[in-house]
Amino acid sequence: MIMSPRIERTELFHRFEGNPIICAADFPHTVNAVFNPGATVFEGRTLLLLRVEHRTGISSLVVATSDDGLTNWEIDFSRGLEPQTDTPQERWGIEDPRITRINDEYFVVYVAFSAYGPLVSLAKTKDFITWERMGVLQQPEDKDAALFPMMFDGRWALLHRPVPSMAEMGKHIWLSFSPDLRYWGDARVLLAAKHGGSWDANKIGLGPPPLLTADGWLIGYHGVRVTASGSIYRMGLALLDRDDPSKVLARGNEWILGPRADYEQNGDVPGVVFPCGWILRDDGDTLHIYYGAADSVTCVAVARLSQLMSHLQGHPSDLNS
Ligand code: BMA
Fold it and tell me: Alpha-carbon Rg of the chain, whole angstroms?
């Protein structure tokens, strides 16, 4: 038993009973951890781009696929992205991919652990075998980034999370624009970390890429709560205007997925759920969210989009605080 049914009944997300779906033991060679996967649909199958952390401490990205997005995962070592560790940009590996499909191409925004700190980089692919690196989008320290799948008034939009050198100023989600996916600017804070005792005080960051719904762009973001025994990483929701993503329409005042299960409480970093991908299934309501648990294993949880949207409506946060 992973969680008491009394707890699970009240949750919006239902953890798949087969969790963790992929872990280090599924690899034929020794790896440390398999977590924080990006997710998409490729040729009709669910495709995860797993962050595989080797025992060197360096991570690379490896493909796993499944027909139903829940079971029978096939790890494909011939597909994925290896870090260019001989370059300063990717000296210490590549991490936490977020996948955005634009026409027949997949744009993967990932954290490149450079010789000078984490930065936001972009690579695109049509098949997850051949890649075109499109360079550094945001200098260090910046992470937790994803592209929107469309342009707004002729510009691409990127969500990202820079880290100010003055820690007391907090860590917030920013929105930047680009005419060509290369030069980024017109940056502004989109969602600010809250204050005081709020679950998302001081430090937040984007989770999966924005999801277009009938009501606007659904945003999943993590909030970090520092406690006496370490940080707790949980996920909450916000909603952006469909035509102007700089307009925040709603933000929830509660987290909706937090570490509870054994595999979320035990691992390299206990108390972490860290989603980097979600897939809305063909019925338009079933949402599979893929997340790293405790920086160790890969998991999936299932929610109803309609329930998430009504929860967001019913638990509003003050947008000006
Ligand atoms: C964040 C990222 C994630 C990690 C999380 C919890 O800053 O580095 O890769 O899962 O911390 O350790």
Answer: 18
3-state secondary structure of 173: strand
- Residue 286 CA to residue 311 CA, distance in Å, equals 15
Inter-residue contact 103 to 110 (CB < 8 Å): no
Residue nearest to atom 9 of ligand 1 (CA): 96
- The DSSP H or E segment spanning 307 is helix 305-314
Cα-to-centroid distance, 118 and ligand 1 (Å): 11
If you measure from the C-alpha of residue 36 to the centroid of ligand 1, how many angstroms do you get, rounded to a whole number? 9
Count of Cβ atoms closer than 10 Å to residue 7 Cβ: 11
Of the candidates 81, 32, 80, the one whose C-alpha atom is nearest the C-alpha of residue 295 is: 32
Pocket of ligand 1 (CB under 6 A): 36, 95-96, 233, 269, 272, 274, 292, 295
Q: Please give the number of the atom of ligand 1 that sits closest to the Cα of 272.
A: 6
Helix (H) or strand (E) holding 117: strand 117-125
* Band (4; pLDDT cuts 50, 70, 90): low
pLDDT digits (tens, 9 = 90+) for 91-149: 999 999 999 999 999 999 999 999 999 999 999 999 999 999 999 999 999 999 999 99
Q: For the stretch 137-173, what's the b/e string if a residue is b when 16 or more beta carbons lie within 10 angstroms of its beta carbon? A: bbebbbbbbbbbbeeeeebbbbbbbbbeeeeeebbbb
Domains of the chain plus CATH, in order, are 37-314 (2.115.10.20)
Each residue of 225-283: pLDDT tens digit? 999 999 999 999 999 999 999 999 999 999 999 999 999 999 999 999 999 999 999 99
- Using a cut of 0.90, tell me whether the model's pTM lies above it: yes
